[in-house]
Amino acid sequence: MKSTAKILFLFILLGSIASGCKKLLDVEFDATFKAEMPVVVAASALKDGLAEFTFDVSDSIDPTTNSNYDKYFEKIKKITVTSIIATIKNPSKPVTLLNMTCEVWEEGSTTKTTWTFPSTVVVDGTKFTFTDEGRFDKIENMFFSGKTIHTRCFGKTDVSGVTFTIVTEYGTKFVANPLN
Fold first, then answer.
1. Which of 12, 62, 88, 154 could form a disulfide with 56 if both were Cys (CB 3.0 to 4.6 A apart)?
2. ∠ at Cα 64 (139, 147), nearest 5°?
3. CB atoms within 10 A of CB 93
C-alpha cells in the first residue's frame, strides 16, 4: 500500500512540475500597432449656406509586421488591448473637429467597432482616448484572427484648407507559449 501511495504521489508531483514548467515557458511581450492617416480638408463649396468641411481617412494594420507577433502567432494564449489613442499631429492651422467618428474592423468583416468624439479644438498632440466599455475584447479578437485590421476616422472641421495627421496607436500585451 505504501508503494502505491508513493507512486501516486510521484505522478501527482511530476504532473504539477510539468504543468508549472509549461507556465514558466510563457512568453510575454508588449506591442504597439499604428495606423497613420493624413487628412486634407480642401476648400469646400457652400451647401445651403452651411459650410461642410469634411474628412474621411483610413489605414490598415498588418499585425504580422511585429516580429514577436509573427513568431508566436500560432502559440498566442492571451491578448489584452491596454489602450487605443488617436493623436492629432501637425495641424497646418488652428482647427476644431466638430465631430469625429473612428471605426475598427478586421479584413473580410462588415462588423465595425465604433467610437464617436465630441467637438474639440485641436493642436499638435491633442489626444482622443478610445474607452473600453466592452469594446476592447472585440479588438482583441481581431488580433487573434491574424487578419489585417482597418481603422477609419471621419468627421467635420470648422475650417477648410487644413491638413493634419491622425495617428491611432493600439497598445497591446500578448502571452504566448512555445509549447502550445
1. 154
2. 45
3. 9
Q: With beta carbons less than 8 A apart as the criterion, state whether 66 and 52 touch.
A: no
Residue 107 dihedral angles phi and psi, to the nearest 5°: -50, 130
Q: Rounded CA gap, 122 and 155, in Å?
A: 14
Q: Are 61 and 104 in contact (CB under 8 A)?
A: no
Q: Which CATH class is domain 26-176?
A: mainly beta
- Beta bridge mates, 31: 172
Note the pLDDT tens digit of each residue in 99-150.
999 999 999 998 999 999 999 999 999 999 999 999 999 999 999 999 999 9
Per run of 10 residues, the mean pLDDT along the chain (length 180 residues) is 52 46 76 97 64 90 94 93 98 94 95 96 97 95 96 94 97 90
Question: CB neighbours (10 Å) of residue 178?
Answer: 12
